[in-house]
């Protein structure tokens, strides 16, 4: 391959500029991305599910999470599932309902069930949990704890 006159010098200069920018950080621009935290997977019959939470806002005194339960049907036929989502309410020293619902999952299908946003004081972790009921019975709680975001 024949290089055009001056192309090697241009490549070296361009590479040096990119390297210098990477080390100095002067031209770096990054948008804050949503942080997602997920707990361990739980099985209930052919359904595998886990509780996750997105950190959607971080302020000076509070942060907000958007919890969701993600479920997948590994079976060979459809399954009806019922979702229950909860978050820890420190004021009541107990679990508070974030709602729930039901859905039919076809074989191989997956879905997410979102709860409303939850506000947390800075310095406090965010415990949330979800559960799936199927014809196989009531599944165990799938937990997620988002570390304090501020």
What do these coordinates show?
The chain is mostly beta strands. Helix content is 12%, strand content 53%. The chain contains 1 helix and 11 strands, in the order αβββββββββββ. The strands form 2 sheets. Strands 1, 2, 3, 4, 7 and 8 form a 6-stranded antiparallel β-sheet that branches. Strands 5, 6, 9, 10 and 11 form a 5-stranded antiparallel β-sheet that branches. The chain is elongated and about 50 Å long. The termini are far apart. The model is unreliable at 1-32 (pLDDT under 50).
Present the secondary structure layout.
Layout: H1 7-24, E1 35-38, E2 42-44, E3 47-58, E4 62-73, E5 79-89, E6 94-105, E7 110-114, E8 118-121, E9 126-134, E10 137-138, E11 142-146
Task: Give me some keywords for this one.
single chain, about 150 residues, mainly beta, five-stranded antiparallel sheet, 1 helix, about 10% helix, disordered N terminus
Task: Provide a concise account of the structure shown.
The chain contains one helix and eleven strands; from the N terminus they run H-E-E-E-E-E-E-E-E-E-E-E.
User: Care to count the β-strands?
Assistant: 11
Model regions low in confidence, pLDDT < 50 over at least 5 residues: 1-32
- As a percent range, the share of strand residues is over 45%
Biggest sheet statistics? 6 strands, antiparallel
End-to-end gap: 54 Å
Order of helices and strands: HEEEEEEEEEEE
**Continuous helix count:** 1
Fraction of residues in helices? 10-25%
Structural class by helix and strand composition: mainly beta
**What is the mean pLDDT?**
83
Principal-axis shape? elongated
Based on CA atoms alone, the radius of gyration comes out at 23 Å
């Amino acid at each position: 391959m024949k290089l055009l006159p001056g192309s090697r010098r241009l490549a070296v200069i361009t590479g040096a500029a990119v390297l210098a920018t990477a080390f100095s950080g002067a031209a770096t621009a990054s948008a804050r991305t949503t942080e997602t935290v997920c707990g361990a997977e739980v099985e209930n019959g052919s359904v595998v599910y886990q509780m996750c939470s997105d950190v959607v806002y971080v302020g000076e005194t509070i942060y907000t999470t958007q919890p969701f339960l993600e479920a997948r049907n590994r079976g060979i036929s459809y399954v009806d599932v019922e979702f229950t989502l909860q978050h820890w309410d420190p004021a009541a020293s107990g679990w508070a309902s974030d709602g729930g619902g039901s859905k039919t999952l076809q074989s191989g299908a997956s879905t997410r069930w979102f709860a409303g946003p939850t506000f947390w004081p800075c310095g406090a972790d965010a415990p949330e949990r979800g559960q799936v009921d199927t014809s196989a019975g009531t599944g165990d709680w799938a937990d997620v704890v988002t570390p304090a975001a501020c």
